[in-house]
C-alpha cells in the first residue's frame, strides 16, 4: 500500500532527522553550505548562459556579426537611423558659405594692427609739400 508520501518528502524528512542529532553549530554550518552551493550553481548557470549568448552574437574573429534583423536594444535605430553622408566640417566654428573670403597675403612681415592702425581709413599722404 502506498502512503502517498513522495520520495522528495521522504528525503527531506531524513535530512531533518539527521540534522536534529547534530549540534547547533554543525546544523547552521551545513545549512549555510547548502545555501552557498545553490547560489553558486545559479551563478555558474547564469554565467554560462551569458557566455553562450555572447558567443552566438559574435563571429569567429570575435567581431559582432552583421546578420539581418539582428539589431536590438536601445541603440538600434533600424530604418530611423540617419543616412551616412560624406564627412563635412560642422560645429560652432564652421561658417560654411558665410566665412569671410581670405585674400592671399602678399606683404612680407607682420601686418600692422591695434588701436593706432587705421587701415583704409588712414588719411592720405600728400606728395610734394613736406615741411622741412
Molecular structure report:
This protein has two helices and no strands. With 132 residues, the chain is mostly helical. The longest helix is centred in the N-terminal third of the chain and has 34 residues, at 24-57. It is rod-shaped and about 130 Å long.
What's the tally of helices? 2
Total strands: 0
Cα-to-Cα separation, first versus last residue: 142 Å
The percent range for helix content is 25-40%
Mean pLDDT: 76
Backbone structural class: mainly alpha
From the alpha carbons, calculate the radius of gyration and give it in angstroms. Answer: 42 Å
Using the alpha-carbon principal axes, give the shape.
Answer: rod-shaped
Largest sheet geometry: none
Low-confidence stretches: none
What portion of residues belong to β-strands? under 5%
Topology as a string of helices (H) and strands (E): HH
SSE arrangement:
Blueprint: H1 7-20, H2 24-57
Task: From the structure above, extract its key features.
mainly alpha, 132 residues, single chain, 36% helix
In short:
With 132 residues, the protein is mainly α. The protein has helices at residues 7-20, 24-57. The chain contains two helices and no strands.
Amino acid at each position: 500500500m502506498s502512503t502517498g508520501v513522495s520520495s522528495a518528502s521522504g528525503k527531506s524528512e531524513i535530512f531533518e532527522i539527521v540534522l536534529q542529532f547534530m549540534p547547533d553549530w554543525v546544523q547552521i554550518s551545513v545549512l549555510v553550505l547548502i545555501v552557498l552551493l545553490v547560489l553558486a550553481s545559479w551563478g555558474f548557470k547564469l554565467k554560462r548562459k551569458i557566455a553562450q549568448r555572447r558567443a552566438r552574437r559574435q563571429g569567429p574573429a570575435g567581431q559582432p556579426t552583421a546578420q539581418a534583423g539582428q539589431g536590438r536594444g536601445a541603440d538600434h535605430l533600424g530604418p530611423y537611423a540617419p543616412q551616412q553622408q560624406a564627412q563635412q566640417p560642422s560645429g560652432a566654428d564652421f561658417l560654411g558659405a558665410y566665412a569671410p573670403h581670405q585674400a592671399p597675403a602678399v606683404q612680407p612681415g607682420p601686418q600692422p594692427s591695434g588701436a593706432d592702425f587705421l587701415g583704409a581709413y588712414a588719411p592720405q599722404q600728400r606728395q610734394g609739400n613736406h615741411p622741412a
